[in-house]
Protein: DUF3885 domain-containing protein
Organism: Niabella yanshanensis
Amino acid sequence: MTKEAFQQLWALHYRDTVPISHLFKHSYADRWFRIHSLPESKRYAENEEEWEILLSRQNEIITDLFGPDTPILIVTGEYCWDESKSIHITEEEEIFKPFSFILLDNIELNKVGKEQYNEHNFYRPAFASAIWKRNYHDGLLREIANDNTRAFFVSFDKNVIVAPYDGGIDFILKDILTKEKYKNKFVKWLSEHESGL
C-alpha cells in the first residue's frame, strides 16, 4: 500500500481523528470499548503465568475481530518537539525491523490540541503491511504491554482499529451494534469503572 492510498482510506474511515491511538476513544466514543489484559484490571504482568493470561486474552479477541491470516496494517510513530529532528523509530527499535514501514506526513500537534502543544511539536506516523496470525505478534504486544513502544493495528476492509496499550486494548469497531456484540462476548474482561476506562 502506498502512502497516498493509506491517507485516502484513513480519510474515508476515520476522518474525525488522526492516527494517534489515545485520541480514538474521544473521536469515536460511540464505537469504542476497552478490555483489560489481566484480571482485576492489573496493569503489568509480573511473571510468566500473567504473561500467558495477557497474551491469551489479547490474541483471542484480536483474532476474533480480524480473523486468522488477515492482512492488516501496523501503525506507529514518534513525537518530536523540534522540526529539524530526523525520525527513525521504525529503524531504531528492534521490534519494528522485520517490517517495511512507509512514513506518513507530519501531524502538527498544535492543530490537534492547542493547549498541550506549540507550533514546533509534531508527530510523524508510519505504517507497514502485515498479516494477523495468532501469537505471531506476541513480541510487539509484549513491548506495548511493558510501555516500551506504541503501535496499533488497523484493517480498513473490516473497519476495525485495535490499539493495545499498557493495561489493555482499545477497539474502534464499525458501528454501535458490532461494538455491543463484542462487549457482551468479552464482558468478563471489561473495566468495572462506569466510564469503561
Summary: Residues 48-66 form the longest helix (19 residues). Helices lie at 3-13, 24-27, 48-66, 89-92, 138-145, 176-185. The first strand starts at residue 32 and ends at 36. Residues 3-76+92-102+130-189 form one domain.
